[in-house]
Amino acid sequence: MRASLLALAIGAFGIGTTEFVIVGLLPEVADDLSVSIPSAGMLVTGYALGVVVGAPLMTAAGARLPRKTMLVVLMTIFIAGNLLCALAGDYTALMGGRLIAALTHGAFFGIGSVVAADLVAPDRRASAIALMFTGLTLANVLGVPLGTFLGQEFGWRSTFWAVTGIGIVGLLGLVTLVPAQPAPERGALRGELAVFRKPQVWLALTTTVLGFGGVFASFTYLAPVMTELAGFSDGAVAWLLVLFGVGLCVGNVLGGRAADRALMPSLYLILGGLSLVLVVFTFTSQAALPAAITLAAFGAIGFATVPPLQARVMQQAAGAPALASAANIAAFNLGNALGAWLGGLAVAHGLGWTAPTWIGAGLAAAGLGTAALSGRLDRRHRRARPLPAAEPPAEPHPVQHPSVQHPSVRQPSAQQHSAPEPSAQHPSAGAGYGTHSIVEEKSR
Q: How confident is the model at residue 31 (pLDDT cuts 50, 70, 90)?
């Protein structure tokens, strides 16, 4: 199944690259299309809004399709959007291409997470999600710097031609490497929407918004922090971003492994650690070496949040996880926007360059609070479960009633034959990611 996960990671790499690479190309785009840099910056905002809107809509539209088929459709639309960007002759066409590509972002990661989890054994699901998201982390480490260099040397359209090519490779991988899967048993839109009646799903989504909002509150203003406070040159920022990206890759893998072992304890530890690292960063950002070391730690623990946050939503949306999973991708992007906005608001009010990092620490702590509340509800639900009904006494004359066994041989109750409920601690315990997992649970 490694090859199937690689195909998903390639698609994630292309999507992650096209999302962030425009940041490094704003001057070239603004100059070529005769618009202001703030107007060019709307290409970033437009993409984020496209993700938030497109994630639930595209997932709902494909709720009746087999998941592999839907992934192929999404990657085809992604290719078309980037092709339009590469051919764009004006700002409107470029924005249109960006919006088309953005519509596929959330649904691809949401459905891809479900497929990745369904390809592996139950105790490897969070790690499988992390492997798919490795494509996104590599996009930050390799795709964005290389795409920026390519666009600066050969024109910004060349970057979108390259991303289009990556999309085609990802599409071929999906078609040839990902095994065919039937449509989900509860694939109807009504079944997918039903999970949003659960308070725990909304708590999980809120935790994502707050926790990852803490990451982007600080990350958005990383360049001025490292140059104005830590004393690095402008040219060193690109290398600092690579250092941050290496931390992302490490944290992504470690976060997936931790979530496989113990989901909620890992989530508590990671969110608490994120808040602590951001507090430390407000002090170490005053000097170059301590700032660089803390930056790598920030990248690691910041992206270690992704696998457990995604797994938690999928766990609580057991039976119909695709739409909730895509909604969580939208929640990540909403957190990005919230953190960046609050950080910018603090800077605009003269609170200094460390203010966004303090805000990030507060948001991460708030995310820890919602996660703790969710865990408390889990424990209360387990305590409130009724005890199994007492078994009737054995007949005194077993010879006259051969169907009744000796009291020492316990008859399995109907409750024991039913499918096990998902564990509140482990996403792998009956999380209901798809038909594959149902068969695995019944075979135990």
A: confident
